[in-house]
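Q: Here's a chain of 632 amino acids. Please give me its 3D structure as tokens.
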Amino acid sequence: MIALGHHWSAASWLDTSRIARSLGLFAGHPASSAHTPAGLAASLPHPRAAPDRSWTPATGPDGSLCLFSGWIDNHQDLAESIDVADRDDAHVFAHLVAQHGDFADRPVIGSYAAIVIKPDGTLRLSRSPWDAPSLFWAADDHAAVVASVPRVLFAAGFPRRLHRHRYANMLFGIEHTGIEFWYDGVHRVPQGSIVTLGPDGFKLDRWYDPHALPPTKLPDDADYLAAADALLDEAVAAALDGAEKPGLLLSGGLDSGIAAEAVLRQLWESERLPSFTLVPEAGTARDRRPGIVTDERAAVEAFAAMHPRIDAHFVGTAEFDNLAERFFTATSTGRPGQAAASFYHNAYSAAARAGCDVLLTGFMGNDTISNDAPWAPVEFLVNGKWRQLSGLLAHPAPGDERSRLRRFAAQSLLPVMPEGFRRFVRKRVHGEPDFMPANGSLVRPDAIEELDLRERAQRNHCLRTGERPATRRQWLDMVWHGADAGAEMHHGFEQVFGIRQRDIYAYRPLIEFCISLPTSQFVRGGVTRYLARRLAKGRLPEAQRTERRLGMHNGDRHARLTPRREELRESLRRMEAHPELGAVIDFDRAYAILDNWPARSPVGHVEAQALLLALPGVVLAGRFADHLEGRN
């Protein structure tokens, strides 16, 4: 992580004395720091890095200073291309900016956030596309403070004031896609963008456009498979660079299994790979929704038997509010969605206890190699590809008991109809609600209308209706904006658990290859995830390679919430008195969920969303309000 406090005038509010301490809060000591001509720079290269008294920002040939967080995968190639000594990433990036200006980010492959202090005192802030560490700033005509996490801004003297209606937006699952963030005057650098910041304001350059990539066309299926395989090997090599003892999040699905096998091929034969798999607590009643696997232990054990160098660790899922206050402090945010993310906590803790220095993940697998092309039913219909469409309709997802005609209407016809008609049909067929934010919703209907929450969620690509996207472009918009939502949580996990993390599939060349592939590489003859299933041939057990059910990592959430019902009720009672939360939460519906608590996990999707996600999310929002406002 990085931070910078920068004065533009003597009459400045900026207090640089607390920047290094705030940045190093979870490391247990101040981050490395150095004075600059106009302020102070700080760096924490690893979650628990010891301070380095000799550290200084990298210097460019024009006298600029550079602070760098993250990594450059093509570091050596770039160093050779600009004829600079092959030193650290910050040094190479400083020289790139000096030589190429606003074009410097384009050839960089990696995941990074960078601050460049130009000789004239202006600041150049940038983040890579797709998988970038977060970067925030607050400034006026006297000073600026820039940091990987927002708390440093407030420690440096910038006032902490939550945006008006932030709780309503938060509970409705609205994430900003531009420069806005949760607090008045605090801005975020969007992914694939450059912000030039000076005493007179800022300029935003969104240089990366995911829609500008040309389609990938290769001679035949074998060429596509070979190209994907080669890029996967590149991604794994990049992820392992600098790792001394990697661990890996391993499920019983396609993505992490393919990644694990690829990692094993690049480790020394004497090396073993610790894996960490989430399993439900023994003896608990589990999620009963059709088409879902709630316990992946058997699949992982079969995979480990096929690859004996896997050291499989099985860990239980955590409570929805596990370590909540630590995450509030680490990220200055309290999304209801953190209730869902909490089930990863025990896996990160186990990896840290096992001595792993980096935890490898495959979170972007579903958007890359194992994409199931959700736009395909509409594309096949519009382009008259009747055989392909018939194949899809003949092989419904496990648990989908609708008739073929109804699936055709829902997947191919409804997405291209006018929105008003789609809403009418959804409401008639499914009842209320006729839409569903990402984490469900317990926001009052009158607040949704008064605050235009539905429209705002739609503009920010945060509305989830259960529909498939009508086009690949719509799908790509959702993926692109989702990749940048909550980027500060990456630093949150690293700070709280003291371990670095890296998504193998978030390798830019692999992402760009996959999102530009023909639909036929993802769906073929009724087989979904076609590319991943071919990659998995001989690498995964056949039962795992052909499995079509979806894994559910928190399948015992209902069992965990059941004994806490009265505690949840008391939390709701306290929140009713809150001036903002009390005005936007649908307490009648929340209490009704508790009053009609089912004996087993609900089967209906809407009911499951409300009970397993929305209700815990509301309680977590109340905890965040207590944290922010200084209540215990």
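Q: Can you summarize the key feature?
A: The longest strand covers residues 65-72.
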